[in-house]
Structures are given as C-alpha cells and as structure tokens.
C-alpha cells in the first residue's frame, strides 16, 4: 500500500484530543487520525484481536507485579501475528 505524508493543522482542542487518545491507546498520532478519517468515511476501524487484548492484559499484569519487566507496546505489538 502506498502512503503519503500530509501536514494537518489542528486546533489546540483537537490536538489535545488526539494526544490523549494516543497516550491511552498506545498508538501513534497517524494511527489515531487515520482511524478518525476511516470512521468519518464509513470504513471499518481497527479493533484489537482477542490475542492482542490478552497480550496487553498479560503485560499490564506483569508490569504491576514487576515494574522492571516493562516493554514498549510497539515492541510487543511486533510479536503478534499479522501486526508488524
């Protein structure tokens, strides 16, 4: 799939909303904005698989038990099938 980089000007309010969503969901700005555009244009949005959810829950449980075991979500996501 070809990609193009675009510059988008956002109001401070929209920027804060994007930043909050990406922090909570551990995703990039591009992913959040792409999902918003897909939703606007009626395309399906990303939904994590049960395997992805289970991996996240396991990682969160491990982090509570041993904070030194924390890993970046982007690294964990790369280990899941079909998510590179």
TrEMBL record:
Pfam families for this protein: RHH_1
Highest taxon in the source lineage: Bacteria
Residue stretches making up the Ribbon-helix-helix protein CopG domain: 6-40
Name listed for the protein in its UniProt record: Ribbon-helix-helix protein, CopG family
Annotated organism of origin: Ornithinimicrobium cryptoxanthini
């Amino acid at each position: 799939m070809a990609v193009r980089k675009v510059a988008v000007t956002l109001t401070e309010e929209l920027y804060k909303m994007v930043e909050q969503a990406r922090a909570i969901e551990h995703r990039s700005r591009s992913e959040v904005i792409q999902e918003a555009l897909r939703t606007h244009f009626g395309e399906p949005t990303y939904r994590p698989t049960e395997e992805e959810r289970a991996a996240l829950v396991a990682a969160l449980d491990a982090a509570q038990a041993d904070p030194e075991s924390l890993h970046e979500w982007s690294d964990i996501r790369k280990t899941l099938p079909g998510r590179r």
